[in-house]
Design brief:
elongated, three-stranded mixed sheet, 25% helix, 4 helices, GMP Synthetase, Chain A, domain 3, disordered N terminus, disordered C terminus, Hypothetical Protein Aq_1857, Chain: A
Length: 210
């Protein structure tokens, strides 16, 4: 294999046998089923919780930059098309199917941070804040299915964050952010005097479960 050739044996996502059987059955109800693959794409913007678009598409229409993988379990085979902008964000995810929830994607990755004009996020202070969030803050929020993402600081002592997962839309999320997360960061990083929450908490009762 050429060093420049893509590694098409590496599965970007895992599809459980139950999900594979369900998807193949759905595909087989479509016209031209033998030409179709599952197109799986993340359609949310940076700073938002992941939103997924799953649809059947003609495999030969996949773009040059798309990654196409073949998933097989016994006699069941399904090709999966992942657009370039979703590859890194889906790496290591699992697509499952349960009788109660239907198709479910378990994704270990975090959404990209939004870009806010005027904020700094590539200096030593940002690195310190991001490390603290990764090592100390998010492990505590993980018990509630949530996490925070660092957006940047304004050089005037304010750090800007967003909340995702079970924290976004939760009635206690703003209190958690402003009292819990802010206290942790301010106590450990004196340069930061306060935290501002950029999360859109109006997007649902608890979008993590939607």
């Amino acid at each position: 294999m050429s060093p420049l050739a893509p590694d098409t044996t590496h599965q970007i996502i895992t599809i459980t046998p139950t999900a594979l059987a369900e998807l193949a059955a759905l595909r087989d109800t479509e016209p031209d089923a033998d030409r179709l693959g599952l197109r799986l794409e993340i359609i949310s913007k940076p700073g938002e919780d992941f939103k997924y678009d799953l649809s059947f598409d003609v495999i030969t229409k996949a773009a040059f930059t798309d990654e196409v993988r073949t998933h097989t379990d016994g006699d069941v085979t399904l090709k999966v098309i992942i657009p370039a902008n979703s590859i890194d964000l889906l790496e290591g995810a699992t697509l499952d199917h349960t009788s109660s929830a239907g198709l479910v994607i378990r994704n270990p990755n975090k959404p990209l941070a939004p870009t806010v004009e005027g904020l700094v996020r590539d200096d030593a202070l940002s690195a310190e804040v991001e490390t603290f969030i990764q090592d100390e803050v998010n492990p505590q929020l993980a018990a509630h299915g949530g996490f925070v993402t660092y957006v940047g600081h304004d050089n005037e002592g304010t750090a800007y964050l967003t909340m995702g997962g079970g924290c976004q839309g939760c009635s206690m999320s703003r209190m958690t952010m402003m009292e819990g997360v802010q206290t942790m960061i301010v106590e450990q990083i004196p340069t930061i005097e306060r935290v501002r929450d950029l999360t859109d908490h109006s997007s649902g009762e608890n979008p993590y479960y939607h």
